[in-house]
Every structure is written in structure tokens, then in C-alpha cells.
Amino acid sequence: MNKKKLTILIDMDDTIENLLECWVNELNKAYGTDVKYDEVFVWDMTKVFPSLTKTEIYAPLHNPNFWSKVQPLPGSVEYIKRLIDDGHNIYIVTTSHYTDIKSKIENVLEKHFPFISWKNVIITSNKQLVNGDILIDDGVHNLEGGKYIKILMDAPHNRSYDAEKNGMLRVYNWEEIYNVVKSQFC
Ligand SMILES: [Mg+2]
């Protein structure tokens, strides 16, 4: 019996790599703040760093050197490879500003995930417009209203969100994501 081949949409920041942790560390270092990644309970970074301006907060993302510090989350490289080997179509769906995309793709995707082609990258701030069987994302606003199966990657900023009530499956790591996809949706 043929197994079902899925189109799996995968967010980039804080789903396959540790952007937020690097970003918080960078701001702490630059401005002497003491914010802990585990205590970033809201999406809006201006609320997390109230003493900084929006320009100061977003500056690291516009710095090409910053993106070279961003690292894959544990298991993301291995398990995305496995999903591809299993025959699924993988698309990275990310929302970065156009000025940051080049550094992000070169320093994170091409460096750590060279098996994912640029042809399989979709840049959009409206992920609900993208057709796919599954979206894996840490941003609840990207999952809400989408026609895909919704897998929510756990993060401090989404921890108080009732995933189950909103038709999402909360997961904690890439091994779990792989097993859920394999056992429940194939
Ligand atoms: Mg994200």
C-alpha cells in the first residue's frame, strides 16, 4: 500500500532554528538588559524590551553577521531530512522582511539545511493563502484560519494559548513532530 505523500509547510524562525534566543541575547549584550528567553511570554518584542525603541529592537535582524549566530533547533535538520526521504514535499514558509531574507537564507537555510532548495521557500506574511496539508509553526496567528492541519511548535510566547481548543496540536521537539506526522497523518 502506498503511503500518503504530504505537502508539509514549515515555518523557519523558532520552528527550525533559534532566532528568538539569539535575538534576546544580542539585545541584552548591546543594551545591558537582562531578559531571559524563557520569559518572553508575548509575541510583541516592544513589550519585552520596553526601554528600547522599535528601531533598536529590530536592528540585529538587519545585520548579516547576526544571522550566522542562529542555529538549528535540536533534531530539525535530521527529521526534516527524514520527512523528505519519506517522500513528502517540504516547503519553508517564512515572513521575514525582504531586506533580511538574503542573509537569513544564506546564513541559516543554505548553511544548515542545504538539502532544502530555494525553490521550496515561500515568503509571505499571509500563510493562510498557501496550500498545504500541514503547517508547523510557533506563531498561532499563522495557524489560525488556515486550511492545513495545524501543528504548534511550543514556545514561551504561545504557552498560555489553548492549542487544543483552537484545533491545533502542540508539539515540543522535532522527534515528536516526525512521529506525529508519520503516525497520524500518513
Ligand atoms: Mg516562527
Characterize the structure shown:
The chain is of the alpha/beta class and about 190 residues long. It has a single domain (about 1-185), classed as Rossmann fold. The chain contains eight helices and six strands, in the order E-H-H-H-H-H-E-H-E-E-H-E-E-H. The protein has a six-stranded parallel sheet with strand order 3-2-1-4-5-6. Helix 5 (about 75-85) runs parallel beside helix 8 (about 175-185). Magnesium ion binds near residues 11, 13, 14, 137 and 138.
SSE diagram, text form:
Layout: E1 7-10, H1 19-31, H2 45-48, H3 54-58, H4 64-67, H5 76-85, E2 89-94, H6 98-112, E3 121-123, E4 134-137, H7 140-143, E5 149-153, E6 168-171, H8 174-185
Parallel strand pairs: 1-2, 1-4, 2-3, 4-5, 5-6
Helix pairs in contact: 5-8
Bound molecules: magnesium ion (MG).
Residues 11, 13-15, 137-139 line the site of magnesium ion.
| Cα-to-Cα separation, first versus last residue | 12 Å
Q: Determine the fraction of residues in helical runs and give it as a percent range.
A: 25-40%
Number of separate helices: 8
Tally of discrete structural domains: 1
Radius of gyration: 16 Å
Using brief descriptors, characterize the structure shown:
single chain, alpha/beta, Rossmann fold, 6 strands, globular, binds magnesium ion
Short summary of the structure?
The chain is α/β, with parallel strands linked by helices and 186 residues long. Helices cover 36% and strands 14% of the residues. Magnesium ion is lined by residues 11, 13-15, 137-139.
